[in-house]
Amino acid sequence: MIFLSASIPTPGKEKYFETADALAIHAAVRAVTQVVLPNNQLIWGGHPAITTMIRHTIGRMEVEVQDQLTLYQSDYFKTIFPRENIFFKQLITVPETPDKKISITNMRHKMIEQYPFKAAVFIGGMKGVEKEYEIFCKAHPHALLLPVASTGAAARIIYDTLPAPADKRLMEDYEYNSLFQSLLQEYL
User: Measured between alpha carbons, how far is residue 154 from residues 128, 147, 149, 171 in Å?
Assistant: First the structure.
């Protein structure tokens, strides 16, 4: 099982937006989806842009991968779920609370702590990606961590603050399909 944490930073979130590479984020999400599927499980939280990217990527794949995808959403956002959600057979919604922040935190904990993940990939993102990284590290201290620094934003911040030196390809390599095939090879 592979966990994906990703989003595209928006203007106004300058800490993340100024280093974000939207094209690299898109390419990395597409590549990790293609590499992980159909032989492994991919689980992610339903950021609308990322869910749309995954939907379009698997729509172009020549094999059936629905059983290997699990999408998480907080019911807090049920009135604005992306229409692509209906495409995924394994959509898990987490009950909402009156507080948006608590609802999202509950979803993150359930999504991350429920599975025996082998690895996590962090792409682009903002504060939520950093929070998912923290939760993931506590829940899965021996899992492989892949912050794709070349996508910028939160992934770059995570890469720069890793306690041990990270693979430089995560910063320099934009050939994401071959990068993920190499780095995830023993986990697929």
Answer: 9, 9, 8, 13
